[in-house]
Design goal:
Elements lengths: L2 H13 L2 E4 L15 E6 L21 E4 L2 E3 L4 E3 L2 E3 L7 H4 L2 H18 L2 E6 L2 E6 L5 H5 L3 E2 L1
Parallel strand pairs: 5-9
Antiparallel strand pairs: 1-2, 2-3, 3-6, 4-5, 7-8
């Protein structure tokens, strides 16, 4: 996802009342912060979130992991963005919300699929297909690797 599309995505998150947190549980404004790893959740889930080793993780919380795409010019690499969630919770207290979280994940995925084309692009010697913003395609022609 390029920066222009990400601004639209951030607008969607705000409009749909999602909350964005860093790995320490602090609220993050993605427009003002370049944090690479964040968690997307709902306000009503905040009291249910639990830190492990001073860190929040999507693997055991009602949250969706969002990794941002970044262009690393000096390294000739582009980090792939990602949405990820777990729906296997050991904590029965939060298990009841997993369907709602899954619905949120699906809504975010639909937004991405609607706004970012699924297209072929060059990744080193390989041609791969994936959701990639048109503004990132020139990096494939410059020989950047997507990691």
């Amino acid at each position: 996802m390029d920066k222009n599309t990400e601004k639209l995505f951030i607008g969607y998150l705000k409009e749909a009342d999602y909350v964005v947190l860093d790995s320490r549980g602090n609220l993050v404004d993605l427009c003002e912060n370049d944090t690479f790893y964040v968690l997307i959740t709902r306000k009503e889930y905040l009291p249910l979130l639990e830190m492990k080793a001073d860190r929040l993780s999507a693997s055991d919380n009602l949250a969706i992991e969002y990794l941002r795409s970044n262009v690393l010019e000096e390294e000739k690499r582009v980090t792939r963005g990602r949405l990820w969630m777990s729906n296997c919770f050991e904590n029965s207290r939060i298990e009841q919300y997993s369907k709602a979280l899954n619905s949120d994940y699906n809504a975010l995925s639909r937004w991405i699929k609607k706004n970012i084309p699924n297209q072929n692009y060059s990744d080193g010697e390989m041609i791969v297909k994936g959701y990639i913003s048109n503004n990132l395609l020139p990096y494939t022609e410059k020989g950047f690797f997507f990691i």
